[in-house]
Write a structure and sequence with these properties.
seven-stranded antiparallel sheet; Alpha-D-Glucose-1,6-Bisphosphate, Chain A, domain 4; globular; single chain; about 30% helix; alpha+beta
């Protein structure tokens, strides 16, 4: 099983970033607009439409406000397995680290998935820093 870990520094308060991450139905508006173009909530899950046209159903496994951690799993994908988490760590009063970890099968898809994670983190950083500058 391949494991991918990526992180990015975001110049925005951790509480503000976490509020956007935990808002699981608003990915396309608050966190990664353009990278995700629509999010529809279902009981215990969300259906995510990516900018590249892919549509995936993601089970929401956990939203932990104390640890600022969201965990999810994709259930309808060419991947045999995909589970991931996003966690926000404070890095001073106006900055935080956004850490995204994913485990997946088959291993051969790790490069493509890592590229999507990196793209998603870049969009999240830009979106959240712009939002913090306005607040």
């Amino acid at each position: 099983m391949a494991s991918i870990r990526r992180e990015v520094l975001i110049r925005a308060p951790a509480a503000q970033v976490w509020d956007a991450v935990r808002d699981v139905g608003a990915l396309h508006r608050r966190l990664v607009p353009g990278f995700v173009v629509d999010t529809r909530l279902e009981p215990g899950a969300r259906v995510v439409t990516f900018g590249n046209g892919q549509v995936r159903r993601e089970l929401i496994l956990d939203i932990d406000d104390e640890e600022r951690r969201l965990a999810w799993a994709i259930v309808d994908s060419p991947l045999r397995h995909y589970s991931a988490s996003a966690q926000i760590f404070g890095a001073g009063p106006n900055a935080c680290r956004f850490v995204w970890i994913a485990d997946l099968l088959p291993d051969e898809m790790a490069g493509a998935v890592a590229g999507m994670i990196e793209q998603g983190l870049a969009v999240a950083r830009d979106t959240l820093e712009k939002s913090a500058a306005v607040a």
